[in-house]
Amino acid sequence: MDIKQVQELIRFVAKSGVNEVSIEEKDFKITIKTNQQPTYVTAVAQQAPVAVAQPVPAAPVAPVISAADAKAIAAAEDMANYVTVKSPMIGTFYRSAGPDKTYFVNVGDEVKAGQVVCIIEAMKLFNEIESEVTGRIVKILVDNSSPVEYDQPLFLVEPA
Amino acid sequence: MQNNTISGLFIGQNLISLKSVDSTNNYLKNQLAKSKPLPEGTVILAEDQFAGRGQFENKWLSQPGKNLTFSILLFPVFLAPLKQFLLNIAVSLAINDTITSFIGCDCKIKWPNDIYFKDKKIGGVLIENILQGSKWKYAIVGIGINVNQLQFDDRIKNITSLSAIIGKELALDTLLSALSSSINNRYNQLKGNDFENHIEEYKKNLYRYQSMHAYESNGIPFEGRITNIKPEGQLEITVGDEVKSFSLKEVKYL
């Protein structure tokens, strides 16, 4: 299951009115809980106190998001509504075409599919990354000229 | 240029010659941004490139009409963006082979993408890619070779030209077509998954390969031997018994 399918599943579960869905495949397991009428679930007894104290709309479990901490839960919440632009490689993240140039995009900006949002430099190869969707930049997750890992989330875009 | 479709040569079939432009890479990018359909292998050649980039905003100081400054448009959609260093290897090798045949003696590739003769730079490659999300759309391969220029800015050290090495002028168009077909062949090998020897050849032609030299990392000088290049492009230097791996900004040649 890829991240897109997970996002779709979260959206589907949120709309469906059920409060928990578990799917288990060969080497993959996901549990999605909604905060509609929180129920006590013995299967996740360890996490139950947390879940009761802070009901969250979605908490995928390992291995997709192994760190089941608050950060991951928050990320999952964002992903349900937003499209994440990720780094296609290891490199350095640049928000502009040069030190004296204006940023390609800022938070709140409308972007069109095909519009350049950043440059990732890897071993002197410069990669202009275009947005795949039309929408609005909600969050910029990396500082200008910092190192990024493969698949690291860079932007959250709210699709139009 | 004649039609070479049968031999699989397509680089330079569509040649756009400009008198003067800020940079041939920018020109290509602007054309693509205007959704102008350009065939793969299109070459933009400029007599005068007044704002060419050595690396991120380092200006390339070139006398108009003396040197080769051009960009090639490629569609390497068959390669994952993660493997893009392989394109850099293929292009650097092709340039190194061609220049070696023109000057009759070895030049070297200085990691990652400069061409050196002894301790002096004669040219370089700057690849700019356009990706939609995680899919590779275009590669714009910018190439600059010092050909017939004999005087250089005093502020730039360690620089030379082909004509300074061999003592006579070279015809730019002859060199351009030799470079185009050589890059075309290496690119076809990459496309045909027939590039196993590329990394080995790149290493063999690497400036300072396997000999002791001084480097600096995090402000600390050390001596070591370049012993490997990873497919993703990292430089491996053996220091004593230890192999250290470096990204571009983590190591300085002393």
UniProtKB/TrEMBL annotation, chain A:
What does the record give as its pathway? Lipid metabolism; fatty acid biosynthesis
Q: Per UniProt, which keywords does this protein have?
A: Biotin, Fatty acid biosynthesis, Fatty acid metabolism, Lipid biosynthesis, Lipid metabolism
Per its record, what are the GO molecular function terms? acetyl-CoA carboxylase activity
Question: Domain Lipoyl-binding: where?
Answer: 82-158
Q: Which GO terms describe its biological process?
A: fatty acid biosynthetic process
Explain the purpose of this protein.
This protein is a component of the acetyl coenzyme A carboxylase complex; first, biotin carboxylase catalyzes the carboxylation of the carrier protein and then the transcarboxylase transfers the carboxyl group to form malonyl-CoA.
This protein's name: Biotin carboxyl carrier protein of acetyl-CoA carboxylase
Q: Give the organism the record lists.
A: Arcticibacter svalbardensis MN12-7
TrEMBL record, chain B:
Indicate whether Ligase appears among the record's keywords: yes
Q: Which Pfam families match?
A: BPL_LplA_LipB (PF03099)
Q: Matching SUPFAM superfamilies, A to Z?
A: Class II aaRS and biotin synthetases
EC number(s) reported in the record: 6.3.4.15
Quote the cellular component terms of the Gene Ontology held in the record. Answer: cytoplasm
> Keywords of this protein's UniProt record, alphabetized?
Ligase
Transmembrane parts of this sequence: none
Looking at the record, the residues that make up the BPL/LPL catalytic domain are 1-191
- Is Ligase found in the keyword set? yes
Output the PANTHER family linked to this UniProt entry.
BIOTIN PROTEIN LIGASE, BIOTIN--PROTEIN LIGASE
Provide the protein name: Biotin-protein ligase
